[in-house]
Amino acid sequence: MIDKNHLRILFVEDLVSDVDLAVLELLKEGLRFEHKRTDSSDEFIKALKEFKPDIVISDYMMPSYNGMQALIDTREFDPLLPFIMFTGSMNEETAVECIKAGANDYVIKERLTRLPFAVKEVLEKHRSQIEKKAAEFLAKENQNKLQIIFRLAPVGIGLVVDQVFREVNDTFCKMTCYNRRELLGKNVKMIYSTNKGYKNVGIVKYWQNPEKGTGSTEARFKCKDGRILDIVLDATPLDKNDPAKGVIFTALDITERKQREKELWASEEKSRSIMENSADAIFISDPRGKYVYTNKAVTDMLGFASEEMKRKTINDIIPQNKKDEYLEIFEKVLSQGKAYAEVELLKKDGNFISADLNSVLLPGGLVYASCRDITERKRTQKELLDHRDRLEELVKERTEELSNAKKEAEEANRAKSEFLANMSHEIRTPLNAILGYTDLLNSLLVEKIQKDYLNSIYLSGRSLLKLINDILDLAKIEAGKLELEYDYVEAYSFFSEFERIFSLKVLEKGLKFILDISSGTPSGLYIDEARVRQIIFNILGNAVKFTSEGSIILKVFVENPRVVTSSKDKVEELIDLVIEVSDTGIGISNKIKDLIFEPFTQVGSLEKTGGTGLGLSITKKLLSLMNGSISVRSKPCRGSTFTLRIPAIAYRKDYAIPKSDILIDPSEIIFEEASILVVDDVKYNRSYIIDALRNTHLKIIEAEDGATALKMAKEIVPDLIIVDIRLPKMDGYQLLSKIKSVKKLKQIPVLAYSASVLKTQKERINKSDFSGLLTKPANVTELYLTLMNILPYKSLKKDESELLVSEPDMIDEIINLPDMVNALETDYYEIWKPFSIRQPISEIHDFADKLVLLGLNHNSGMITGYGKELISAAESFNIDALLKLIKKYKVLVENLRNSVKT
Ligand code: ADP
User: Fold this and answer.
1) What is the CA radius of gyration of the chain?
2) Could you read off the pLDDT of 262-291 as tens digits, one per residue?
3) Is the pTM value of this prediction over 0.70?
4) Ligand 1 mean position to 416 CA, how many Å?
5) Closest Cα to atom 4, ligand 1: which residue?
């Protein structure tokens, strides 16, 4: 292996001893080397290739080879390989020949000591020669590269000396459309578009530059074809210390970029103009909050000029107490890209405005904010709010006033009703007296004229009484005081009554009464009996009153039968009830047809017709309470037909009149032993029942609330439970369902005990599991009747007609008893007699009035009481009660007669 670190010496020598001597000498001089000896041409050439010597030392004279030939072979192999000729005696010619042939040195064998120095020197020379060559090579390489760069660089490059082009590259030529020849040697001025441009760049910027031409600037070149180019010109002097050596420049064509910039600028100009003219105030600030742009609206809004604004930051135009809050908003824009807020901004004059702020982060980190002045809006809003508050206050005040007014009105209405009720009572009593005495006086008077006067007084009194009763009814309806009381009535007997009631009048006037109840009419109708009776009574009354010949027809039929499912899944069968009253009387003209339902409308005088003009308006109002309607068909002199329609009436197909109804004498009813649990939180209500049932076999147990009641019921299992509907905590309905859910209590009848007789309440009770309703305060009769329906009892009653309602008189206190009994058995008896067959309400009313008067005159509470009961039955159109009371008359008179006898 060849050690490259060692010097390698190839000897060409036939004498080994000479080589040894030379090696010794070289070693002596400190050279470290390897060596090889050859002495033939072939060996030598092979060694050159394989041994790769750093130096050849060759003998000049050899038997088979010679030094000159070795030199030639060496130079052929490597023209620079160091070669020293090593020779014996040598003359000057040989030396010149060797050097000429390319040897680097020669050493004479006799002067062998020189050999190391010659070797060192030759090697040194060789090294520097090699380095020089390499450097030359490299320099050439670089120059080539630079040449390529210079030629192909994408920017124009050139050398200018004393403002004259000395060199330019292809790109510069291409850029300017000039060729090299046209440029080189010419003043650079030729390339500038204007003289001024040249001066500005070439003289001002370039020559006056302290570093003599170093720098970058923009210039405009004019091409050969006339195009103007925008150029970025960079220049550097070749030698800073010697400007005369010229300047290297690069020229970059930025025409396109400039054009784009221009276009961009134009479009920016557009947005700028839009921003400038925007009605909203626009602020653009840098990320530190310093304003870089504000539009005109900002100036208008805040009073600061644009230039002033550029010296400001956000901090300068916000209220100091809100600084943190607003800077947070600004931070939010920077971090999240946008923010919206309502802000206050400081004006130049020191005032603040309110503004809606909409802010976004622009590309490049600028913050855009548009603000709209909402001071006015806020002010208006505040005003509106103030107004609203004020209005609310006003409304409140007004509501209060109205509610007070309503209360007052209600109070007034109640007072009115009360007043009317009181007044009618107050008027009725003396009026009764007037009427009574008129009647008495009538029997005393003989003169016709006096009798006529008296009759006038009587008739006027009667009218007055009716008027008062009507007004009272109307007032009641108007005040909403009139509540309907629904129950089932037996249709046939109900409508037949009218025939009986009007029979006398009809007979008197020679009219025909036809009752036409359609066969489809169900037997049981769920209506307010008294009020429907009052309605029909009014209409029939008018028909009879305004008809002098012909007939009166009362026609009853039903329409629109249907099955309705209520919200609680309760199925109800309903019909509309239609009642038609036709007469052949005077008829009604079109002119007053619409008026007759208004109060106080009548044809003819009160005296003539005997009416008040209130009947139809009461009728209409009552009907509308029942959701019903009334209409009339009529022609003058051709009679009238009034049609009454009451919709949605519940009905029963097979309905029979319940038997015992009224007037119970407790002493005649003997209940069998039974226990009753009375549940009511009010002690009085419980005590009332206990007292009322004191002398019976009934055992009353009390409970004051639902829970106790339930407990007691389970313990004693009573025969009947009476439950107050409005119990505290657990109400009556809840208690009922609890009772019904206990097996051993399930069968026990439970009565509802309620002060309310409202229609809805009654309906609810009807639909529930309650066995019946006991109204508070229940009178003894009602209580007994209700209990008799449930509990077993025995009746000691002989005859219903013997029952007395009013307290029996203390006979001794009656003034002139025989006279009274006499009157009752004669005059009064005559009036009474037909009532057992027919019951004309108004006549019975008159009769009752007279009885009251008679009772008062003789101090007989029994007669007065009886009269009053008759009046009340007549006024409530309670025919059953009337019948029973009329029947009682005879018993009453008989009893009194017996008292006279005794
Ligand atoms: P009044 O108590 O005076 O009868 P109503 O309100 O009952 O008052 O009737 C008002 C008026 O309507 C009557 O005065 C009469 O003019 C007219 N009118 C009512 N019913 C009839 C009828 N059947 N025939 C003719 N006119 C009638």
Assistant:
1) 70
2) 887 777 777 778 888 888 999 999 888 889
3) no
4) 27
5) 611
